[in-house]
Fold each of these.
Amino acid sequence: MEGNALALSHFRTRVGSPLLLSADASSAARKSSGRSRASRYDTGAPPSRAGRGRVWKRDEPEASSRRAGITGVPKLNPKVSNKGAGTNKVPVVNFEVSHHRAVAAVRLLRAEKGKAFVDLLNETANDSGENEMGYVERTLGFSTRHLDDRDIRLVTVIVAGTVRWKRYIDYLIMSLCSDEKVFSKMEPLLLQILRIGFFEILKLNVPAYAVVDENVRLAKVALRPGAGNMVNAILRKLLSLKETDSLPLPKVEGDDRAQARALSIIYSHPVWMVRRWIRFLGKEEALKLMNWNNSDPYFSLRVNTANGYTRDDLVNRLEDLQVHYEKSIMDEFVRIREGMQAVLQAGLLKEGMCAVQDESAGFVVSVVDPQPGESIMDCCAAPGGKTLFMASRLAGQGKIWALDINKGRLRILMEAAKCHNLDDIITDVHGDLRLYAKESTAKYDKVLLDTPCSGLGVLSKRADLRWNRQFEDLEELTCLQDELLDSASSLVKPGGVLIYSTCSIDHEENENRVTAFVQRHPEFTLEGVHGYVPAEFITDEGFYSSSPTKHSLDGAFGARLVRSTH
């Protein structure tokens, strides 16, 4: 399961989020004109271009000499800047293309190759914002101007949404191509530009003239005039089909397998997930789950009580920032759906007032029930969300050992602990749990195993995760989970408690793992979570379980296992 509670300079949501950090110190200093909203979409076109979807005359090949190939310095076009003149490499900045679409296209290219995160543009901590613009320049042959907060929001919405709806969009693109080979042999950048256009038309309802004009221009400048003409033809065909409500979608009919294939296209999920959810949840619940996964996620902020803050303090700051919020059923949490950039820019995370963490993870900490004076081992701790929350509940008394195999992520965890004034309570341990358990003689009052899992409960925040998971992964993960459970159990004192948790909604990773563990280890007894979490989150077997469709939270699971005293 994946926790999220980091200092600003190290904030990286591991669950697909519409969140990006500003590129550098200068962008951090710029003031936002207001809260970012996808509905206030910047078309990138001045009012003088307004029309009814036609591609403007200056975009035609005979009129494109100014833009089709940005190969020189500003004399070619007063809208192209050579701000870096005099340096070894002259950056060529193109002011005509839609800058957020250009960045989104490159990010989609890199994400598809597994070289970029869908949910994060850059981090001020390692100058990756500057690196991002470097990727844009190397890929497109020119740079764009720096993105402001509103642009960043647009990039996030476009990238995350296009990735979520990739199967649905690709099916339509292929249907609208003259030949299936046209789609299969389409160059990657052209495909990403088309995907962006389709997503904007189908899911964002951006004005037609803006979608066609800007994506055609991007294709012509970044590729060639003929590519722009192809984008123009396909996007116009899509608009025509949308207006007549005649999109060529598959019919949900036939046997279970055929229906699952059709639903996997319509709801843009892998077939194996659709079949599995229909089998175990029922068709109606499976459709609700896929709709949840395709929706824009909210974020929860947990106030840092260890620094002396209260939820009222956090609420007052959010009101000052004009960020809409909802109070959570958990006392330390508030929810926001928009305005995360304002929270980051205001320094609420950096100053240690709060952390980004879903309530589903907070309930896992409630299942652990940390008490002052206890010794607690967090076995797969990084990036540290639950570690910090547990430490804050120790009230300065007790100790937490945070073990993780990734040394870099442990370093981030400890820097976050320092920001939250919890570094004197938390000790980091770098190593593999399986080896550590064999070599260590230490025993702990409580051991939390927040185990690596499929992440099927957090697909709304991890837009790309659905495409990176295969059915075969479940078997590998369950074997790993069994190994880690066996190792973690050896660290529990007699009479102590082992807590097993995941961010999965799959019974194979949850209930079945606990049942198999108890059969292998009769010295452990399952203890119900009654009294630790609200009754609505407790299963008939006494496990903690949060459901996206039932509770509007990330999916998560937790179990308490008590070791006998002899």
Note: Confidence is low (pLDDT under 50) at residues 1-87, 120-127.
Amino acid sequence: MNFFPRLIFSHFSRHFATLSKLPNNFTKIPSKYRPQAIRDAQQALTDYLHCTRYIPFVYAEHIAKNSFFSLSSLISGINFSTTSFNRNVLRFLRYHPINEYEFFFESIGIDYEEVGGLLPSKKFFFSEDETVLEAASALSGFGFPWNKLGKLYKEEILIFKASSKELKARLFKIKECGFSNIPVIGICLAFPYVLRGGGVNELRGEIVALLNDLKRVFLDFDLGNHVEDNVDAWYEICRKIRVFYDLGCEKGKIGELIGRNKNLFLQYPEEVLVSKIEYFSRFLVPKEAIGMLILRNPEILDSDLETPMISVMGMLKHFGLSVEKRDSVAKEYPYVLGRNKMTNLPNVMRALNLHEWLFDRSKNGNHRLLANYTLNDDEDLDKGFRDSFEKIQFSRTPVHTMEKLMFLHRVGFGENSLTMKVLAHVHGTGSELQERFDSLLGLGFEFSKLCRIVHMTPKVLNQHPKTVERKVNFLCHEMGVSLDYLDIFPAFLCFNLEKRIKPRYRFHKWLTENGLCTRNYSIASIVATGEKSFIARLGRIHPDALNEWFENFSYKESDNSIQD
């Protein structure tokens, strides 16, 4: 898609998205008159706020021109006229005062749908509490764009409880570090807590550490001279820097490192930075370590970590895993071997329980191994997988089956015949399987062990997450067994909780407590034994066991199916 059609598509997308949020009555105004209706209403609201409510004109105008949805809702109940709409709106406002905070919050850039949750409970007018407007006026007077003040309000509401004098003092304290107004604004928008309270002379602790880093970066290493002299450019560069602090990098300690790698912040969009962080986060390593990896090796942002195909065994060899350990991997995790995509590498390594090892290898000077890895054309091709893959293309539901296969690859299963056997037994869409897998992780299953369970007993993924959760809770809480037991007997999760697991376990517990059974049967033996064999066993345990079972423990309906 070239630029012009893309521009048209973007324009109409925004247009229809906006129309869907507008009040019904407003959309009844003929489309050719809507711009005029908005202009007239904005002018009327400006006059009302300034002349009737005594709000300084410049702020009244900011509020009127930046509160589109609140204004649209207001005028939706006023009859439109091409000649007198401005007067109609003014007349309406005289008898129907507005909630000034509603219009204000939208005007400073807060999403209209969030405004309702921010409104003071018993205040409608700024005259009841001028603190918020006074703070906004002080910030705007310093040069903050009015419609960006919402970023400060949402993150640090205390800023808007400070007096104009306090805010000005805090701003000029930051300027004393050597910054002009525009850089100060960019810093404050990216790090609102620098305007937090504590007294005009108390920029201490983490704030001082942050400002020391920023001075080192922008002044000592001259990054500031490479940033355009406008608020958006400074806000963008500061937002990229903040990413590393949000990862846990210590304030006051990384200024020099950022300064020496300033091209990272000048050349790469924030989206590229965030996408690489998200990629390495999937190795489940400390976030600070990810930040330091990228700061020390910014060239890693150029690497394509999404589309290349890899050989799992080839990647392990490429990163230096010994022959002995590779042989052990092949025996223990055959379902992970074969080919996969680079984008799935974090989960592939988690399935092998080697994720920390590979990240440590990357962190300790081997990050280029990810970028320079290449796959030979005929390397690690599995004929059984290829044959099954071709059959999918000619099946009745190729798209549905491919979604399931992509799910298996995402969680670490490779291109091999074992993966295809698992594929044949899992049911549901790719997104449903992912939800069930994630819910099991949420219950405390280790990633590597869960992949092995899916390999051994694929039908574990065919149940609703709540069903599995109840079984796990019963296993851990009533039976007093850890999740590790499922490494031995994963099929436990496939048996019906109410019809099979609960009655049999509780009956064996009763037998033991009453001294009728001295043998210690395993959970697998209790649950998995077929119905006829189970009944025969009870007869051998004690003559009265069968009567007790049928009268007080067995599920009363027929139990033809052992699975949920």
Note: The two ends are 49 Å apart (CA to CA).
